[in-house]
Specification:
heterodimer; A: alpha+beta; Rossmann fold; Dna Ligase, domain 1; 3 domains; five-stranded mixed sheet; 23 strands; B: mainly alpha; 16 helices; A alpha-helical domain with a conserved ER moti (chain B); ATP-dep_Glu-Cys_Ligase-2 (chain B); DUF403 (chain B)
Chain lengths: 472, 314
């Protein structure tokens, strides 16, 4: 594996310009002061109740995500490039979805194979021919980005369904500003606080035509036991919209209403944080109690906008991921600004042969798997595991893709033995409304707190950092 | 506002109020049972505490007899007793989480930090009297902070009024329950036998509704049972009296009625109860039977709860 890109230090001893002021400040600040602020931050998180739930843990169902007080910094120039790339990518995602559920030019041009769409469980035939306002499918996208060198941003994953984490971006900044006013005085950090306003504007801009002049927006949550519930209530509060559960909504004459103390009130746009499968028991899983019976028929009648649209899973699926560079080129006629992780599609004989020859060095993933299940990490696996996997792969090659293990970039991070480099990724949030696509400068930086670990997931020892984009 | 939000706010306030009331009841019972037997007679005060908390039936399914250890545990820490202080605080926190957008940050902070603090108490319990006293004080202070932060920080709109209705409905129920259990020591016939025994019973009643000092200010008299009944039922200057609770309930319901531009059965029913209280005097009440009066009130009060639920909360 290659040596990881260090975001602060240039090999040879110099600092990257964006980190110079931070390095100076760190030198002046005694380690106890850092530790003290870290504890203070944790206390604040707990008091505000910024917790997430861990399923299947009886002991405590609410946990804190560890917060690292050392910010992750990017220069304005780096951000400008990333921003351009993100807008390009999300534009392509939306055009792809529009095409898949309408004309299907891309399938006819044989850029993406048919079976990857039609045999995919996240493809929603209910969406065929369905008009969505302004052709926006992915109103909120969370694109996971990693860096392996100074010049390139690589997309690890597109999240086009119900991406979460934006509350951490906002709360991390609030808490950093509270704890380190002196550090902010020495940097020009681009603010992130207008995100809720941008989100509300985007959601309102895609209201259905039958909505009144002041469209009513609501946030649909699975409820207080959902792992991201804090974020749902936080966003509803910041947006000034009702936080509704399925049982608060009712469909009458193909319109959606919420039950209020003054009777029924029409809802025009639902920012839903409930997965497709659970949205409407009449259309999808009949056992869902989180959804709203009849919601899909109101949607088909064009009386409600769902953000994100139903069926966006087909755009962020692992099987589709490897085609993203071609998808960008197909719709926009441009070279993709953001790179993909090189991916071998085992369905293609040439790729399969390569993968079988190099299983020791590759990560092999199930196309429809998630959360790291059914995955082979070659460099860390035993011979027997690899051989067993080889057989599986030969039996059903179309079910797998393979990627090299990536050396994620590192940032200085507080550890038990002082500051040390730890691997990070970044999830910026891309908002698309009727007229424009916006990204607040920043995102959620996740950090693998264990030494050498590449796993940034909060369920497996990952933490978060504030992300600073310097305004030069 | 969402019906579910109103429902959560209303129940949140009820749970906090109930937790405080339970803490006061335990506190008052501890005081009275600490007296030498000659001062309090043969009644089992822990049994009374269970009755006023309305959980005697479920308690006796689990225990043979009521004593300090098992009643304090059942009312404070039991996870099986749905109205224990513990479950009230847990439910209050869950309700708060469900309606965070309708709470001010001060209210959320009060409930959430109390909940965090009390996790240690749930797991370890209170080993000494001092610990227990500290715990009971903490619960009462939490309720005061919650009430105070609601009063000082909430917008005066339907969210506030639904929350206040929860407080007053619960409070009326609690005061009525004490009267229901203790009415026999307040009967006029007892006047002549009002020895030291009843004195401590009476002061205990007043203490459990935090009205001992108030009594002296209002009546400038030694403790007399019919005056205590008067204070708790009819005197609308005492915040925990039935009359005061209903003055407030009628006001809150009217405010909601005006804001929504229409009234319903809840407004009418509450006004009916208030009018009955306004036009009563203690003589009549004693003549017709305190017990019957109180029982009727408890039923009426819980009916109002049902009507409010039907009209606004579902």
């Amino acid at each position: 594996m290659a040596v990881a890109f260090d975001e602060m230090n240039i090999p040879g001893g110099d600092l990257r310009p964006a980190y110079q002021e931070l390095a100076r400040w760190l030198k002046e600040t005694p380690p106890e002061a850092l530790e003290y602020r870290r504890q203070e931050a944790e206390l604040l998180f707990r008091r505000i109740g910024i917790t997430f739930a861990v399923y299947g843990e009886a002991e405590s169902t609410e946990r804190l995500i560890p917060f690292d007080v050392i910010p992750r910094i990017m220069s304005g120039k780096e951000w400008a490039l990333l921003e351009k790339g993100l807008k390009q990518r999300v534009r392509a995602l939306n055009m792809f979805l529009r095409d898949i559920y309408h004309g299907r030019d891309i399938l006819r041009a044989e850029v993406v194979p048919d079976d990857l769409i039609f045999q995919n469980p996240v493809f929603r035939p209910e969406m065929n021919g369905q008009q969505v306002p302004h052709d926006v499918y992915v109103h909120i996208a969370g694109i996971d980005i990693v860096r392996v060198d100074a010049n390139d941003f690589i997309v690890l994953e597109d999240n086009a369904r119900t991406p979460s984490g934006v509350s951490y971006m906002l709360e991390n900044r609030e808490i950093m500003m509270r704890l380190f006013p002196d550090l902010f005085a020495r940097h020009r950090v681009a603010p992130v606080e207008r995100y809720p306003d941008e989100l509300l504007a985007a959601l309102r801009s895609v209201a259905p035509q039958s909505a009144s002049g002041e469209p009513t927006v609501a946030l649909l949550t699975p409820g207080v036991y959902n792992s991201a519930y804090y974020e749902h209530s936080f966003l509803a509060d910041k947006l000034g919209i009702e936080l509704v559960e399925g049982r608060d909504l009712i469909v009458k004459n193909n319109e959606v209403f919420m039950r209020t103390t003054e009777g029924l009130k029409r809802v025009d746009v639902i920012y839903r944080r409930v997965d497709d499968d659970f949205l409407d028991p009449l259309t999808f899983r009949p056992d869902s109690v989180l959804g709203v019976p009849g919601l899909m028929s109101a949607y088909a009648a064009g009386n409600i906008t769902l953000a994100n649209a139903v069926g966006t899973g087909i755009a962020d699926d692992k099987a589709i991921y490897s085609y993203m560079p071609d998808i960008v080129k197909f719709y926009l006629g441009e070279e993709p600004i953001l790179k993909n992780v090189p991916t071998w599609r085992c369905r293609e004989p040439k790729d399969l042969a390569y993968v079988l020859d190099n299983l020791n060095d590759l990560v092999v993933k199930e196309v429809h798997g998630s959360g790291g299940y059914g995955m082979l990490i070659g460099p860390a696996a035993t011979k027997a595991t690899i051989e067993a996997f080889r057989e599986k792969l030969k039996r059903e090659p179309e079910g797998f893709i393979a990627q090299p293990t990536l050396a994620l970039s590192t940032c200085p991070t507080c550890t038990a033995s002082g500051l040390a480099p730890r691997h990070v990724d970044l999830r910026p949030f891309v908002l698309t409304g009727s007229r424009r696509t916006t990204i607040v400068p920043g995102g959620l930086t996740r950090v693998a707190l264990k030494e050498g670990s590449l796993v940034v997931n909060s369920s497996q020892g990952g933490g978060t950092k504030d992300t600073w984009i310097l305004d030069e | 506002m969402l019906s579910r939000t109103a429902e959560n706010l209303y129940w949140l306030a009820r749970y906090v109020e109930r937790a405080e009331y339970l803490a006061r009841t335990i506190d008052a019972t501890l005081r009275v049972t600490a007296l030498p037997a000659a001062y309090i007679g043969k009644t089992n005060e822990w049994d009374s505490a269970l009755l006023t908390a309305g959980v005697a039936a479920s308690f006796y399914q689990q225990y043979q007899e009521a004593n300090e250890t098992n009643v304090v545990d059942y009312l404070s820490f039991s996870a099986d007793n749905p109205s224990s202080i513990r479950n009230c605080i847990e439910a209050a926190r869950l309700n708060s989480r469900s309606v965070r957008t309708a709470l001010t940050s001060e209210m959320w902070d009060t409930i959430n930090s109390a909940w965090i603090e009390l996790q240690a108490v749930w797991s370890k319990g209170t080993s000494t009297r001092e610990d227990l006293a500290k715990f009971l004080r903490f619960v009462q202070e939490t309720s005061l902070r919650f009430d105070g932060s609601a009063y000082r920080t909430m917008l005066r709109n339907d969210a506030y009024w639904f929350s206040r209705m929860g407080v007053h409905l619960e409070r009326a129920d609690n005061t009525a329950r004490i009267l229901d259990v203790k009415y026999h020591v307040l009967l006029p016939e007892e006047e002549h036998v009002g020895g030291p025994l009843d004195f401590y019973q009476w002061s205990s009643i007043l203490r459990s509704v935090s009205a001992l000092t108030a009594y002296h200010w209002v009546y400038r008299e030694t403790l007399k049972p019919w005056l205590i009944a008067d204070l708790l039922i009819l005197n609308d200057t005492l915040p925990r009296s039935l009359a005061s609770c209903y003055g407030n309930l009628v006001r809150n319901l009217d405010q909601i009625g005006v804001a929504y531009g229409r009234q319903g059965p809840a407004q009418r029913h509450a006004r009916g109860i208030r009018n009955r209280l306004e036009h009563s005097n203690m003589n009549d009440i004693f003549q017709h039977g305190v017990h019957e009066f109180i029982q009727e009130f408890i039923a009426d009060n819980s009916r109002l709860g049902e009507i409010i639920t039907r009209q606004y909360l579902i």
